[in-house]
């Protein structure tokens, strides 16, 4: 088995064609439902500036743009941005960017970091730096929307392998918890060739984010537990969704 994992797993995996084959089935209707609910709650003004941080191929950025906002969307993977640029227009721009670096200070009315696009880094100071960059990118009074998994409801079974088949590829997926991370090992097989990737996301809880926000000049406005914007229940909610405001 060829191991293609780089020192930073996300740089390799998110830029691979296999990532998009595996996750191409993601529910567009659910994503639209979530964005529409957020916009209804936030009530942004037409033309306000929004940053989609870790935008993937840009589906959420495009939806925000179509609703009348000025959208900048960034992602670490060049292949994602190349694909997203097919939708670029005046008021909708895409660029390659590492969220550990500040994009632009005091620029955006809203910053979106959605669908567990956080917690990739081994060291807590890198995660804190990323939140500080999000806060710095916001105008005074601007809001951060950060959507993460609820680690209290994660129950991966070590040793069990889930197999999926897409576009002639076989994906063998094993989930487990290692120390302070949830790890997903992904073997991709086609025509006898196999490649191994990993996803490694820190098990960050509500208190961790509260500390990040406090250190970054952000105050929590509310916390939701699902894409329907239901209240957060630590023991039952699937998601941990923060709306935080820059002082």
Broad shape: globular
Query: Which strand-content bin applies to the residues?
Result: 35-45%
Number of helices: 7
End-to-end Cα distance = 51 Å
Unreliable runs: 1-6
Largest sheet data: 7 strands, mixed
Strand order of the largest sheet: 4-3-2-5-6-12-11
Overall pLDDT confidence: 92
CATH architecture of the largest domain: 3-Layer(aba) Sandwich
Structure description:
The protein has 247 residues and is an alpha/beta fold. It has two domains: 1-25 and 155-202, no CATH class; 26-150 and 204-246, Vaccinia Virus protein VP39 (Rossmann fold), CATH 3.40.50. 27% of the residues lie in helices and 35% in strands. The protein contains seven helices and twelve strands. It has helices at residues 9-13, 17-23, 28-42, 59-66, 78-84, 124-137, 206-215; strands at residues 2-3, 49-53, 70-75, 92-96, 108-113, 138-149, 161-166, 169-178, 181-190, 193-202, 218-224, 239-246. The strands form two sheets. A seven-stranded mixed beta sheet has the order 4-3-2-5-6-12-11, with helices on both faces. It has a five-stranded mixed beta sheet with strand order 1-10-9-8-7. Helix 6 (124-137) links the parallel strand 5 and strand 6 (138-149). The longest helix is centred in the first third of the chain and has 15 residues, at 28-42. The termini are far apart.
């Amino acid at each position: 088995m060829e191991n293609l994992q780089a020192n930073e797993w996300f740089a390799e995996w998110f830029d691979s064609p296999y990532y998009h084959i595996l996750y191409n089935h993601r529910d567009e209707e659910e994503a639209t439902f979530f964005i529409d609910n957020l916009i209804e709650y936030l009530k942004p003004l037409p033309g306000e500036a929004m940053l989609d941080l870790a935008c993937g191929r840009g589906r959420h950025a495009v939806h925000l743009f179509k609703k009348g906002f000025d959208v900048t969307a960034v992602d670490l993977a060049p292949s994602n941005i190349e694909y997203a640029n097919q939708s670029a227009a005046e008021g909708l721009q895409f660029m390659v960017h590492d969220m550990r670096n500040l994009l632009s200070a005091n620029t955006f009315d809203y910053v979106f970091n959605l669908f567990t696009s956080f917690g990739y880094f081994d060291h807590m100071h890198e995660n804190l730096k990323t939140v500080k960059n999000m806060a710095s990118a916001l105008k005074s009074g601007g809001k951060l929307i950060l959507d993460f998994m609820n680690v209290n409801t994660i129950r991966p079974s070590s040793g069990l392998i889930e197999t999926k088949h897409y576009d002639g590829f076989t994906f063998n997926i094993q989930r487990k918890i290692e120390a302070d991370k949830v790890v997903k090992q992904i073997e991709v097989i086609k025509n006898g060739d196999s490649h191994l990737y990993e996803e490694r996301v820190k098990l960050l809880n509500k208190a961790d984010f509260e500390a990040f926000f406090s250190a970054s000049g952000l105050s929590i406005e509310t916390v939701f537990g699902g894409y329907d914007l239901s209240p957060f229940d630590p023991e039952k909610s699937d998601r941990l969704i923060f709306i935080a405001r820059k002082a």
